[in-house]
C-alpha cells in the first residue's frame, strides 16, 4: 500500500516539529511548505538526514509551490504568525485571515480530498475561514486546540496529584481563548471525577481552581517565557494525535474544533467539542451534559468565537 502523504503548510516552529514527529513515527511521506524560501527545504533535508539515525523509511521534501502538496492525505496548517508577549490570539486575526485565504485556495486546488487540521490562531475563527476558503466538506476540516488545552489540564493535574498522566482524562471545551471551558465534572483521575478527587483529599478545591486558571492561561504562560513566539512541542504532538486517528481510522474521541450542526444548540460555526475522529474525518460529535454554570461558561466562550467570525466577515466580505 502506498505511504500516506502529509503536507505541512507552514514550516515554522510547529511545522518543523510536526515534520520531525511524523518522520520519526513513519506516518508517511512529508512535504513541508512555506512562503519563505530555503526554510522548508533546509528543515526537510535536516530531518531526512536524521531518518538514517532513527531508521524511518519516509521521504521529506521542502516546497514553496502548492503543486507539491498534490493529493496529500492530511494537511496540517500552521501558516501565519504566532503571538508575542502582550498580544492576545485575537490580535493575529487580520494577518492570519489573509494567510488562510491563500492556504485554502491552495488546498482546494491540489489536495481537495485531504483531512485538514488547522492550528493557526485565532483558532476557532481561522478554521472556520479555512473551511470556507477551501470549500472542503466541514467534516474534513477541523481545528486543533482542545487536545492541547486538555493536555495542559491533564499535565497540571498529574503534577499536583502525583498520578500518571496516562490515567488522567481531562477535557476542555469551547473556544481556544482564555475563556475556554475546562470540564471539571467530566474530567477524571483514575476514573474519579475531579469533584470526587477533591472530596477524597487528593487535592484541595483551591488547588483545583488554580489548575483550571493555569490551564486557561497555559498558552500565555509559555509565550511569556519564550518571549519570541508561542508553544510548539505540545501543539505539534496534539496535531499528530489527530492525524493518526484519521490515518489509521482509530476513532479516538478527541476535543477538537468541529463544525456544529445543531449540537450543543449551535450551528454554522466551529467550537471545541469532543468528537470521534476516523477515516471520514469528524464522524460524530459527543455531547456532554452541562449544568447551569458550565452552560454559562460555554455561552461566553462561544460569544467570543462569534465575535471573531463577525470580525472576519467585516475584513473579508466574501465570507459573509
Ligand atoms: P512560526 O514559527 O512563525 O511559523 C509560521 C510559519 O508560517 C512561518 O515559517 C512563516 O513563514 C509561515 N507563513 C506565513 N505566511 C504564510 C503563507 N501565506 N503561506 C505559507 N506559510 C506562511 O509560528 P508557529 O509555528 O510557532 O505557530 C504557527 C501558528 O500556530 C500561529 O498562528 C500560532 O499562534 C498558532 N498556534 C496555535 C496553537 C493552538 O493551540 C491553536 C498553539 C500554538 C500556536
UniProtKB/TrEMBL annotation:
Gene3D superfamilies: Lactate dehydrogenase/glycoside hydrolase, family 4, C-terminal, NAD(P)-binding Rossmann-like Domain. Keywords: NAD, Oxidoreductase, Tricarboxylic acid cycle. Residues 148-306 form the Lactate/malate dehydrogenase C-terminal domain. Its EC number is 1.1.1.37. SUPFAM superfamilies: LDH C-terminal domain-like, NAD(P)-binding Rossmann-fold domains. It comes from the Bacteria. The keyword Nucleotide-binding does not apply. Substrate binds at residues 83, 89, 121, 152. Belongs to the LDH/MDH superfamily. MDH type 3 family. This is Malate dehydrogenase.
Amino acid at each position: 500500500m502506498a505511504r500516506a502523504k502529509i503536507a505541512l503548510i507552514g514550516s515554522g516552529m510547529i511545522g518543523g516539529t510536526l515534520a520531525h514527529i511524523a518522520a520519526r513515527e513513519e506516518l508517511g511521506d512529508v512535504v513541508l511548505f512555506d512562503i519563505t524560501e530555503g526554510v522548508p527545504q533546509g528543515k526537510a533535508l535536516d530531518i531526512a538526514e536524521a531518518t538514517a539515525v532513527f531508521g524511518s523509511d519516509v521521504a521529506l521534501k521542502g516546497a514553496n509551490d502548492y503543486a507539491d502538496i498534490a493529493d496529500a492525505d492530511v494537511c496540517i496548517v500552521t501558516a501565519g504568525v504566532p503571538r508575542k508577549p502582550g498580544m492576545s490570539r485575537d490580535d493575529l486575526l487580520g494577518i492570519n485571515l489573509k494567510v488562510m485565504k491563500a492556504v485554502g485556495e491552495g488546498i482546494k486546488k491540489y489536495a481537495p480530498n485531504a483531512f485538514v487540521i488547522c492550528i493557526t490562531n485565532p483558532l476557532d475563527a481561522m478554521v472556520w475561514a479555512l473551511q470556507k476558503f477551501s470549500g472542503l466538506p466541514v467534516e474534513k476540516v477541523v481545528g486543533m486546540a482542545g487536545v492541547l488545552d486538555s493536555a495542559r489540564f491533564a499535565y497540571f493535574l498529574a503534577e499536583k496529584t502525583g498520578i500518571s498522566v496516562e490515567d488522567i482524562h481531562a477535557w476542555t471545551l469551547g473556544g481556544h481563548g482564555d475563556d475556554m471551558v475546562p470540564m471539571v465534572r467530566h474530567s477524571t483521575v483514575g476514573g474519579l471525577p475531579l469533584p470526587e478527587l477533591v472530596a477524597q483529599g487528593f487535592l484541595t478545591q483551591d488547588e483545583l481552581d488554580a489548575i483550571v486558571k493555569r490551564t486557561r492561561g497555559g498558552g500565555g504562560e509559555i509565550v511569556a517565557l519564550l518571549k519570541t513566539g508561542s508553544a510548539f512541542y505540545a501543539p505539534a504532538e496534539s496535531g499528530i494525535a489527530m492525524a493518526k486517528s484519521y490515518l489509521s481510522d482509530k476513532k479516538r474521541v478527541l476535543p477538537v474544533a468541529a463544525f456544529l450542526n445543531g449540537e450543543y444548540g449551535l450551528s454554522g460555526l466551529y467550537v471545541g467539542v469532543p468528537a470521534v475522529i476516523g477515516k471520514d474525518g469528524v464522524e460524530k460529535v459527543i455531547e456532554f451534559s452541562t449544568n447551569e454554570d458550565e452552560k454559562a461558561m460555554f455561552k461566553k466562550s462561544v460569544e467570543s468565537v462569534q465575535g471573531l467570525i463577525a470580525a472576519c466577515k467585516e475584513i473579508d466580505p466574501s465570507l459573509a
